[in-house]
Structures are given as structure tokens and as C-alpha cells.
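2024-03-11 09:14:02 DEBUG pipeline.ingest accepted 1 chain
2024-03-11 09:14:02 DEBUG pipeline.ingest length=306
2024-03-11 09:14:03 DEBUG pipeline.predict start
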Amino acid sequence: MNCWIANNLLPLVMHPVGLKEFVLLPESDCFALKSRTLSQLDIPLHYHSEYELNLLENGCGGRRIVSHHFEETTDAELVLIGPDLKHGWQGYRCRSQDVTETCLHFHSNLFSKDFLRRHPVKNIQTLLSYASKGLCFTHDTVEEIAPLLKSLNTKSGFESLLLFLQIVHILSISPMVTILPVEAKKETTRWHEDRVEKVLDYVRLNFADPISLKQVAGIANMTEVSFSRFFKQRTGKTFVECVNEIRIDHASKMLADTTNNVAEIAFSTGFNNISNFNRIFKTKKNLTPTQFREVFSANNLYRMCS
């Protein structure tokens, strides 16, 4: 399977709903890469049948248009555009005479549905699905992707394909991403919430076992640092705080429903230290485990006698 790397401008043809771009990408190849320097930011509104990953540099103050969404551009931005989605860039307030565009196109059918159902690449399926609305990535992701994207033209054959897949993978696990159309704001939230819920489901099923940050970061397909930041942003709590809350909830039920002693309950809910269990329980419930059981038993007895 070959990869096509080009530095020429791509032809645009008038179409009743805008400019139809015909990307120079043979069916037998995986992707096409082009780069160019613009004396002014002026890329007409257009669309094409392929996915487009666009890195725009030195274009601060311009205006990006994706479908009906308008936004001022930053000095370095990275967007992923789905097939047949209208997009373009206008000069607006941009005064730069040295705008650099690095543009990667790949076929809409490059990744088959059967392939994307496999566990290691499920995040790519989500990425491509939301690209139909347009995705804008954070500055951290831009810094990570930019050198990889630019180095694609130094690779050939299978080496270039591996680098291309690495780029797509990094985009698919990017902790923060913005879906561009205003009406898609709820969908952005849902995408992030799906990741959080997947991790919480794992914790709810495995709360009695040791759970490492490395394990759950792997479930979310993030690095440990990115996951910690992402989780705190989405939940307002650290991951450890969240695990402790789930464990304390289970311990509370056991204190109320069983006659197991406190040590047994502590160890069966994932705590490997009694002192630590007592301290966290009191912080969460304002009572020690023993006091909680006494209060709960007294309330139950009162309800039975009244």
C-alpha cells in the first residue's frame, strides 16, 4: 500500500453549493500531503470527498469557517474536517504575509468498519465520526502533531504509513477537543463523558482490587498525566478521590447490611490499611465506621418500633 506526498496546489472546481476540490490522491494510495506558504490568508470555502487534517501556522487573526461555524484563528491551529464538509479560511484581521498550511488528506473509506470495531482502534472510529462536524485540537496536541505531520514528507513506503497511523492515533486519544458547530456542544460533552463513564464502570466492577492510574489511563487511551488532568476537568475530583468515594459507598452498605467487622469490610472494599480506611470514611461520612453502623442500627430499630 503506497502513500502519496505532494507539494502542489489542488484544483478547485465551481459547484452549485460551493467549490468542489478534487484531491490528487489515487485510490491505490493511503494519503496525500501538501504544504504551501501563503502571502495572505485566503482559502475559499470548499469541500471534498476525503478527510482533511489541516495545520495552519502564522495565521493569527484570520477567520476559520466550517459549515456554519465562524471562529478567529490562533497562531497555530489544527483541525480535522470530514468528507463533504464545507470549510475555508479568510484573512479577517490576519496581517501575516507568511501563513503556512500543511494539509493531509486521506480517503473516507481508508479504515473499514470491521477494522474500526477492533478494541485497539475504537477511538479512531469515534474521531472519524465526529470529524463529520469538524474538530479543533488544543495547543498541546498541535505541538505534538506538527513535527510529525511535517516529517511525513521525509518518509516513504511502510514507514510513512506507520507515521500516518501514529498521527491518527494521537488525535483519537487527545484529551480535549472541540467540535466546531455551535449546535454540537452537547455532543462534545458526551464524547468526554463516555470516556469518563467507561473508566467509572471499570472502577465499579473492580473496586475491591488494586486499581492503578496506569490501568485506567490505558482504558481511556491516554497518558497518565493527560488522564489525570482530563478526569479532574470533567468531574471536578481527582481519580483517587473518585475511587475512594465508590469504595466508601460499598463499605457503608456492608456496615448497614452485614455483621462483618470493620477490618473485613475495609479489606473487601479495596483498602489495604485500616487506619487509612477509618480516616477516609470519617472524611466522607463525618462518622467513623463504627459510629456509622451504630447510628444506622439505631435508626433501623426506631423505624421497626414506631
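2024-03-11 09:14:41 DEBUG pipeline.report The chain has two domains: 2-184, 191-306.
2024-03-11 09:14:41 DEBUG pipeline.predict end
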